[in-house]
Design brief:
The chain is an alpha/beta fold. The protein is 42% helix and 13% strand. Helix 3 packs across helix 10 and helix 4 (80-94) packs parallel to helix 10. The structure holds pyridoxal-5'-phosphate.
Length: 399
């Protein structure tokens, strides 16, 4: 029998994808330069030179004498040397104490999250806490693992989680909490003080309920930070923490599908968790992440795409939208701007923006109402040309 749930999931596109598809139709009708597509978080900046150099080196040296089997299967959990290089890099960059034996290579952060949620939940009573607004696919991965999503509302002045709501919604069934910083969709960076508050709450609740509550830190935007703040590396703040990482955004490689899961060696039952990750990877068919993508990693650790381009886009959009009169959350990282819609219904507002050929994503899909997300990982010229359209949109509401 065909799985109805999966058929519905496959048929219904996410709000982001839906808008992206509408954009394609508009581009055919009006021309590419007359459509201002801010829908997808698809990096437009070239990957750093180190990526090209590494691929050329690997392909040129791919003969029988090579020590690696470039296009062959690696170990199910990933190549040992690659995992060791990642561990050393993280230890020296963040003063962490990681273990290559607790790193599992994956096809991007999406696979990492799917595997990990399957590994950390075991019944429909298990609750996974999300801080709204959140990356919409989390809900798909959680439901697929058979667990329940519990949403925490944001503090609307900081877009950090409302800590009282967080405290109240942790129960004996809470098994996992997901944090994502810099954040998609707000661009907010969770600074050290808020990470510490979240971790303190979790430590208290672990004691109260007498079982571990695992904190997943989903970090595809870890290197995309535009302020001087240091990144609070989660394993230095909370023992029961696990990282999901992706090279999709920091080095503009979303199509190469490469990332990893890292279990904190201080985690309760860290080895058992790693076994469960290997088991979940096996049961989902997510073994041996793409080999060529794995083998370039030792050569590119520490490189990023030119993030000054994103920083300039962020500043330009923020300043211009503010001066028009929009209420905008100050971007500190990732490549998203979160803007208050000019009417309560963000879906209607996004439709109104479409009349100006502006493609911006309504916030309902991210678990909060009344905002829109602008992905500014696009050409500078598109951003400049879109400003008069944002002005027109504003006039429709305010004059
Ligand atoms: N997590 C967050 C917060 C994201 O924004 C994305 C992609 O946009 C992912 C995970 C999935 O990334 P990947 O391309 O590595 O699967």
């Amino acid at each position: 029998m065909i799985n109805e749930t999966m058929a519905i999931l496959g048929k219904e596109r996410s709000a982001i994808r839906e808008l992206f598809e509408q954009g394609k139709i508009l581009k055919e009708k009006y021309g590419k330069d007359k459509v201002y597509d801010f829908s997808l978080g698809n990096p437009n900046i070239k990957a750093p030179e180190s990526v090209k150099n590494s691929i050329i080196k690997l392909i040129s040296n791919d003969d029988k004498s090579s020590l690696i089997n470039l296009h062959g299967y690696t170990s199910a959990e990933g190549d040992k040397n690659v995992r060791t290089c990642i561990s050393k890099y993280l230890d020296s960059t963040y003063n962490a104490k990681t273990d290559p034996n607790l790193i599992y290579m994956t096809a991007g952060a999406a696979a990492a999250l799917s595997i990990l949620l399957k590994a950390l939940t075991s019944s429909s009573n298990d609750e996974v806490i999300l801080f709204a607004p959140y990356f919409p696919e989390y809900t798909v991965f959680i439901k697929n693992a058979g667990a329940k999503c519990i949403t925490i509302k944001p503090n609307l002045s900081t877009f950090y989680p409302d800590i009282n709501d967080f405290k109240n919604k942790i129960t004996k069934n809470t098994s996992v909490v997901i944090v994502n910083s810099p954040n998609n969709p707000t661009g907010v960076l969770y600074k050290k003080h808020i990470i510490e508050v979240i971790c303190n709450v979790l430590q208290e609740k672990e004691k109260e309920y007498n079982h571990p509550i695992y904190l997943i830190s989903d970090e595809p935007y870890r290197e995309l930070i535009y302020s001087d703040d240091a990144y609070p590396f989660i394993t230095n703040h909370y023992d029961d923490s696990i990282i999901t990482y992706s090279f999709s955004k920091s080095v503009s490689l979303p199509g190469e599908r490469i990332g990893y899961i890292l279990v904190n060696p201080l985690c309760a039952d860290s080895k058992k968790i790693f076994n469960a990750i290997c088991g979940a990877g096996r049961s989902l068919g997510y073994v041996c992440a793409p080999s060529l993508s794995q083998f370039i990693i030792p050569d590119i650790l520490g490189s990023t795409s030119d993030i000054n381009i994103y920083k300039n886009n962020a500043n330009f959009l923020y300043n211009n939208l503010k001066s028009i009169g929009y209420d905008v959350i100050k971007p500190e990282g990732a490549f998203y701007l979160f803007v208050k819609a000019l009417e309560d219904d963000d879906i209607k507002f996004s439709k109104k923006a479409l009349e100006q050929n502006l493609l911006i994503v309504p916030s309902t899909s991210f678990g909060v109402k009344g905002y829109v997300r602008i992905a500014y990982c696009v050409d500078e010229s598109q951003i400049k040309n879109a400003i008069p359209k944002f002005q027109e949109l504003y006039k429709n509401y305010k004059y």
